[in-house]
Amino acid sequence: MISKIYATLLTVLQAPKREFDDFFDEAGYILAYRMALFLTTVLGILGLILVIDYGVKYSVLSFIGFFVVFFSFLHIRKTGKYKTFTLYFNLFGAIMCLITLFGIEGQPHLIDGLWMIINILFTFMSVGKNWGVFIALIHGISLSSFYFFTFNTQIPMIHDLTNDQLFGVSINVFFCFMIVFYLSYQNIKTNQFAQNNLKEAREKLQTQFDTINKQNEEKTMMLKEIHHRVKNNLQVITSLLRLQSRELENEEAISKFQETTNRVIAMSMIHEKMYQSEELSKINIEEYFKSLSNDLLSSYQVAFPIEIKIYCSIETLGMRPIVPLALIFNELLSNSLKYAFCGNNTAKIDIKLQKMEQGIFVLTYEDNGTWKVPTRKDSFGMELIDALTEQLEGSMSFSDKPVTKYIFEFPNLDS
Predict the structure, then answer these.
(1) Which of 184, 187, 244, 285 has the greatest number of C-beta atoms within 10 Å?
(2) pLDDT over 90 percentage in the chain
(3) Hey, which CATH number is domain 286-415, 3.40.50.170, 1.10.540.10, 3.40.50.2020, 3.30.565.10?
């Protein structure tokens, strides 16, 4: 029997577990729960003492406060929603203090200020700064006004206190200090509870962060190694193609081998730029186009100067669009270097990649050469460009007057 009573008492004393997004919000809930339980007990005992010593008349306010706090306690225990009811209780406490101060005449008001201090402290600790300031202003103004207008009448009543009245005042003072002590103690304890939980959460997050960071470093190293090996494998394929082309005597076959080699080099350079980049999933597109242009100029051994201007309004692109875009660039530039210029002293190629409104990317390619061989739509190079453009869900337009110009439009290259 005793063990059951003890277990029930422990259940009542412990605030039920609730889920909160904030540790300090949880601490506020625990503080409000414990304070409501403590005030219920104190006001109940105080009401009984006042009934015994002074009669029912002087204990009415204590019992009203008891029932208000008791039902607030039950609501907090059942729902976990403490802020609204705690605010109502604090406002009710302020009203009760005002009623006691200005409504009960012919009695000395020695301990009203202590109850007001308790109400102010509880408001600050449970509801927050703004309401705490509001309650403090109400109590400060009301108590100052009371003593300003009634101080001279309070002095004789204090002087003529009976032993019973002194006992009642002493009991009130004792309970007030017990409440202040308990409120301060629980506030420190619940704040420490919140701080400890916050510290544990931070340590847990730091551990998870360190683990994830280590995994990311390992994945980064692995991806770099993959890009490096792919680049090396493609370079091996390039070397094999070049060795194989040396056994050929047909000029057209040699040219086809060179074109294929350049396509492989274009993809190899992508992987080279990837593992050299800080972001393994993206590369600097303008820098890549310039490197590819220099490599193609070297590959075709152009005997005259060609001015190549490359402008990109975007800095980086991801792996998904860069491969088809690079192969399109390779085909266009290779065609210009092979067929467009016949020793032209003012050979120029302009390439622009810009991001327009609504996420549309526009690639503009033009040269000022006079093509030795007209562009055939059924050639492998053009078919490859069409297929790559379709792969990127884009469209292409072409004109050859006054200069050879290609315009590509691609939606969402950066997605």
Answers:
(1) 285
(2) 3
(3) 3.30.565.10
